[in-house]
Design goal:
elongated; 3 strands; alpha+beta; 131 residues; single chain
Amino acid sequence: MEAVAKLKNVPTSPRKMRLVADLIRGERVNKALNILKFEPKQGAARLEKLLLSAISNWQQGNQDVDLEDADLYVKSIYVDSGRILKRLRPAPQGRAHRIRKRSNHVTLILDSKAPVAEAEKNTKKKEKEDK
């Protein structure tokens, strides 16, 4: 089963956030958490909290499966552009330069490898046998 977590209106440019998101795409959850913990870039702390939220969401949907046995990995992560705040900065000779303060939206999807599917099948078989 997949678990989704979203982060909206992060006051960082999407380009800077994509640099951090590319580091954890396709990685196992434990390795991704270690990467984000020691990454000095600005968006790493926010993505670490998002990844922990996605893990929690997965646990809510799969209470009968142990987290260590699940073998979770980051299935996909993508960063979209959010709203842009437009400001003006004075420039020489009475002109003005536009400043664009960008923000982004991040979507993270976790999934488990094959053993979780087998564990779910085993629990379903046990439920049928109990009936």
